[in-house]
Fold:
Amino acid sequence: MTTAAAPGNDGSGSLAWARRRDSLARFWRAYRTHRAGLYGLAGLAVIALIALTAPLTVGGNIQSVTSAPGSALESPSGQFPLGTDQFGRSLLGLLIWGARISLAVGLLAAALSVAIGTLVGILAGHYGGWLATALMRITDWFLVMPTLVLAIVLATVMSHSVWTVILAIGVTSWPTTARLVRAQTIAVESRPYIERARALGGGHRHIMSRHVLPNVMPLVLAQTTLGISNAILTEATLAFLGLGDPTVVSWGGMLQDAREAGAVSSGHWWYLAPPGIAIALVALSFTLCGRAVEAVLNPKLGVR
Amino acid sequence: MTTASSADTPAVVTEARTEPRGRRFTAGPALAYLRYVGGKLAGAVVSLFAVLVTSFFLFRIIPGDPVRTMTHGRQVSAEQLGSLRSQFGLDLPLWQQFTHYCGGALTGDLGTSYQFHAPVGSLIAEKLPATLLLTGTAVVLYSALGIWLGTRSAWHSGGLGDRFHTGLALTLWSVPSFWLGLLLVITFSVGTGPVPGLFPTGGMASGDTSGFAYVLDVAHHMVLPVLTLVAVQYAQTLLVMRSSLLDEMGGDYLTTARAKGLRDAAVRRRHAVPNALLPTVTMLFINLGHVAAGSILVETVFSWPGLGGLFYQALSVPDLPLVQGLFVVFAGAMIVMNLLADLLYPLLDPRVGR
Structure:
């Protein structure tokens, strides 16, 4: 740890990589002992495969209302294993296609939220003083905001598109990450090797990007994994409230369609059940992975 | 260990180490606590003001002319539009609208709803009890359930019960609340197959009953929404309780308690759990802060006549004063509950008191 590769040394690049590979292998060995985490990883692999191969298995025109193959609201049958929606589209096809948008929004929104949180956290932790006070006040203020209400408001205020949803989720969910990263930054910067780097002439940017960032990265990774399931749930919620992009099929949007088609009062459970199960499975997979990562990084949590 | 390398942290650390003790003898803990209370109160006031500012300016970005929305589908002349504009103060410059708004908010006047043509304050007051009843009940139930199951899970951690309960809680946590609500409606209200419609849905009470019959009727209507909220939310309390109890379990004082010959149940109930409860108490307050806004979806799904449903109605118009008012109430509840948690915490845990 203390013998960080000196800049300018030719051998340092490969040495750093070898060390990174080692720590990755160590991480994987510890991760492997968490069975729930492995289930989560397997679930994610399956879902990612389904989402990535969707253009081959169902094709993009599954969303088309005009060229729908079936009649409205059919029960499950051989041709349509999950039945059809009110436009006669195959529900199984829509479910598979919806995985793409749910995953994309979840990943991008979580990435945005974690990026903001990490930036704010590192800046506040590194500089301290009035900047930290101001940043942490803003963070605290966002922390007491009812997140869902704020996201709903933002999604209402802006035009209805996928990017709006990503932005609304990302902008409202970063404060927890910011606080964690700030605490970690302060802990890292109190170590002697930071003083050494400073004595050797390392500037603010160098210390933040070369010493602090790599050390907060594992924490950030765990936060991201846990954040994705939250983002996916929020995306479904916004879409269910009719605030999503009306031109794209998503799981939350399917549930909204189901409700509008009267699936609840007529007891069409086969229309309602699959999208919710899909959302729950993806969210659960990410949560399991996130908890396993957290447990590897912080064995004191005792999560098994 | 800490040198002058980072400007503010060592200062904080040394302050935390030396000052409380010094202060406790010179000024007394009561004064120190008062100073702490003052700081937290000032912070809460600043936050509340920031909420007022945000709610005012955020909703001005909503596209669309409110006067047009109000008169939607009716024949109106230009003069009528103008008089409506001045009636709602929309013809004034933005900063004057803002000062009016802040002045009004301080005296409890949150404006007049475009949609219902009634004061926002009284609209909110009218719907508040239903929300408090629903989510309040749910918070109490899921906190109790979470604490109970979390304690059991941690005490027998790694066992079959622990794995089952943690797994079930995590699964239910991943379920969208509105979806679970819809499924419960299909299963128990509409009825599928052999199951008849057991529980009513839609609203808070079905007939004009009074007295005890009314209470029963409301309770009957509450079963499904409360069940939904509890199922989706109890995981968080369970996990926090579980991990904080696991943290305590290595403590030497538990070994001492056992060495005294206390039974396992007594060690758990009298020694371990009270210490592990602290983070859970903080979370309970944060959950209570969510009470006002926490159930927008469940209220929408079950047509519960509360604030969440009102917020959704107001957003779809958009009814600016009503949305603003609700936003202030939702955020205000969070701020007040956070403040209470902050004030209570040093009393519960003397290590935090400064």
Observations:
- Residues 1-9 of chain A have pLDDT under 50 and may be disordered.
- The CA atoms of residues 36 and 126 of chain A lie 36 Å apart.
- Chain A touches chain B through 55 residues (CB under 8 Å).
- Residues 91-127 of chain A form the longest helix (37 residues).
